[in-house]
Structures are given as structure tokens and as C-alpha cells.
Design goal:
Blueprint: E1 4-8, H1 15-26, E2 29-32, H2 33-43, H3 46-57, H4 63-76, E3 83-86, H5 92-100, E4 107-114, H6 117-131, H7 138-152, H8 154-160, E5 165-169, H9 174-182
Parallel strand pairs: 1-3, 1-4, 2-3, 4-5
Bound molecules: BIS(adenosine)-5'-tetraphosphate.
Length: 185
């Protein structure tokens, strides 16, 4: 059995930044569905070809494709010490898919990153100057924030009902936020 910790929050809240550090410190596997999808895009796989325009526009990749990709990763990969899910689930359907495989991969807690829109937009535009990410543009950010509010934010309630949510103030220094999150492991 391998416990999962979900990092949930809007684009630019720092999920990826903190997941890398926390995974290293606590010897957990870091699973970022965004990184996995970008890898498919760069390798020109069938999934990558299907996902590319959706990523660029800031829209979600269809649930069935992401759920299949994630489930395979959990089953094949070395997540035996536990894993951080960075960017999954993003919809109710994705959250329910985790419930279906919970015997082997139970979700233990959900760290919710909270930050205001202005800060998020500022961070993503700043990253866009160097990242080369085709979705770090003003148009895409607007869509990503809307998609977050509509499809992903309701998951906070879903996990609140299971008493799993830990809220983190994601505005401040990276080290301070890292310390806050570390206390929860
Ligand atoms: P992701 O790669 O997950 O991108 P994101 O949610 O936009 O967050 P990101 O990783 O960029 O930002 P982070 O919070 O780390 O997804 C990209 C796309 O893939 C999605 O739009 C979607 O199309 C697709 N996708 C992924 N998962 C999917 C799923 N489950 N279902 C369907 N589609 C899916 O923030 C990073 C930035 O903030 C960095 O520049 C960092 O340096 C900066 N930062 C971090 N902490 C900071 C701090 N404390 N202060 C200042 N800046 C900070």
C-alpha cells in the first residue's frame, strides 16, 4: 500500500516548486501530470498530439486520457514509499477515479495552496519569460484560472467532507511555505 498526498491549487500557486522539495526531503515519488503531459508533447506520442492544443489554450486534457496515464504511472512506477500528486485530480471524475484504486493507493491528505489571482498572474508571466512553456501566456492564464474555478476548486469541498484538507498560505517566501508544508508530513 502506498499513501498519496494531493497538492491542489490554482496555476502558479507553487505546487510544482514545493512538490519537488517535499518529495526529496521525505523520499516520496513526485508525480506531476503537467510534466507528464509536456513530456508526451515533446516526444510526439499520440497522447501528446491530442493534448498539445489543449495545453496551449489552458484547457484540461480529457479525463479518460489523464486517468489512464496516471493509473498506469501509479501501478508501474516505484511509488511504494508514497507519492505526491501534483496537478491531479483536477476534476470530480478524476477524484472519483482515485477512490476506485484506493485499496492500493489511499489519499491521506490534500494540501490546498491559496493565493490571489494577481499574484498568480504575475508569477506565471514572470516564468513565461524564461520557461518556454507555450501556456505561460496572458490568454492561456485567463483560461487556466477560469478552468480552475469551475472544475478544480469544487474538489476542496469534496475533500473537506472527508476531513482531508490542509490549507496553506501560498504567498510568501518559498522557504517559509516549504516549512509550513513540511510540518504536515
Ligand atoms: P501544470 O503543469 O500542473 O501547471 P499549473 O497548474 O498551471 O501549475 P504550474 O505547475 O505551472 O505552477 P506552480 O503552481 O508550480 O498543468 C499544465 C497543463 O496540463 C494544464 O493547464 C492542463 O492543460 C494539463 N493538465 C495537467 N494535469 C491535468 C489533469 N489532471 N487533468 C487534465 N489536464 C491536466 O507555480 C509555478 C510558478 O510560481 C513558478 O514560476 C515558480 O517559480 C513560482 N513560485 C512558486 N512558489 C513561489 C513563491 N512562493 N513566490 C513567488 N513565486 C513562486
Amino acid at each position: 500500500m502506498s499513501d498519496l498526498v494531493v497538492f491542489l491549487g490554482p496555476p502558479g500557486a507553487g505546487k510544482g516548486t514545493q512538490a519537488l522539495r517535499i518529495a526529496k526531503k521525505f523520499n516520496l515519488t513526485h508525480i506531476s501530470t503537467g510534466d507528464m503531459l509536456r513530456d508526451h508533447v515533446s516526444r510526439l506520442t499520440n497522447l501528446g498530439k491530442e493534448a498539445k492544443s489543449l495545453l496551449d489554450e489552458g484547457k484540461l486534457v480529457p479525463d479518460n486520457l489523464v486517468i489512464k496515464m496516471l493509473t498506469e504511472k501509479l501501478r508501474e512506477g516505484d511509488s511504494s514509499r508514497g507519492a505526491i500528486l501534483d496537478g491531479f485530480p483536477r476534476t470530480l471524475k478524476q477524484a472519483e477515479s482515485l477512490d476506485e484504486i484506493r485499496d492500493n493507493f489511499p489519499v491521506k491528505k490534500v494540501i490546498v495552496f491559496e493565493a490571489g489571482k494577481d499574484e498568480l498572474i504575475k508569477r506565471i508571466l514572470l516564468r513565461g519569460k524564461t520557461s518556454g512553456r507555450s501556456d505561460d501566456t496572458e490568454d492561456s492564464i485567463t483560461v487556466r484560472l477560469e478552468v480552475y474555478e469551475q472544475d478544480t476548486e469544487p474538489l476542496i469541498d469534496f475533500y473537506e467532507q472527508k476531513a482531508m484538507v490542509i490549507r496553506i498560505n501560498a504567498v510568501g517566501g518559498v522557504d517559509d511555505i516549504y516549512k509550513q508544508i513540511s510540518k504536515e508530513f
